[in-house]
Amino acid sequence: MTQQAGTELLEIEKEDLARMTSDVVALCEAYRTALRTTPVWKKQDHDVLERVMKAGIPDESLSWSETKEILHDILGSQAHVAHPRFLAFVPSPNNAVSCLGDLLASAYNPFTGSWLEGSGAQTVERVVTEWLASEVGLPAGSGEEKPHVHRFPYCEHMCYAQNRRMSVWPWLGRGPTSTFN
Questions:
Q1: Mean of pLDDT values over 159-170
Q2: What DSSP string runs through 110-130?
Q3: Partner of 157 for a Cys bridge, out of 90, 149, 172, 178, CB 3.0 to 4.6 A?
Q4: Which helix (H) or strand (E) segment is 177 a member of?
């Protein structure tokens, strides 16, 4: 196989990749360690964000140390939704194990759109969907894949059905169209 033009910019020497990986893991560990003593929210420094915005996309690749400085500005300008006292909403699980799972998912990048490309990941997805259905008290088989239904809306329907069954959301009225309505 020949290398496509431009991909050499994405090539990283093994030693550089090891150093970058070590730096990222250290950055994540430092963040998680300091999280309990960090304010959940702080006023953002508009000047820092303005500087990042005005810098735009660089014409040349940046060094790793320059990239880390920019990351510091960007990652420091956010609410800390992983904070133990952040209770507004939970966008995703945020613990060390889920971070490792995200790393694996990003590295392997499974495609589950068809059985041929993602049979392993699809199997796990089916098991989790079945488990979710049983956890909300739906009958066996409720979590099985329906050929015409995508998983996420299907999970929403299962949750909606459970909530209707338990009458915890009576103010919602009729919900999404599904076999449970």
A1: 58
A2: ---SSHHHHHHHHHHHHHHHH
A3: 178
A4: none
Taking only Cα atoms into account, the Rg of the chain, rounded to an integer number of angstroms, comes to 22
How far apart are alpha carbons 46 and 53 in whole angstroms? 10
> How many degrees, rounded to 5, is the angle at CA 179 between CA 178 and CA 181?
70
176: pLDDT confidence band, cut at 50, 70 and 90?
A: very low
Written as six digits, the tokens of 8 are 């050499």
pTM beyond 0.90:
no
Name the 3-class secondary structure at 157. Answer: helix
For 139, the token pair is 């009958």
16-57 pLDDT tens trace:
999 999 999 999 899 888 988 988 888 888 898 898 889 888
153-178 burial, b if ≥16 CB within 10 A, otherwise e?
Answer: ebbebbbbbbebeeeeeeeeeebeee
Q: How far is CA 60 from CA 9, 51, 56, 77, in A?
A: 10, 18, 12, 25
- The predicted pLDDT at position 164 comes to 60
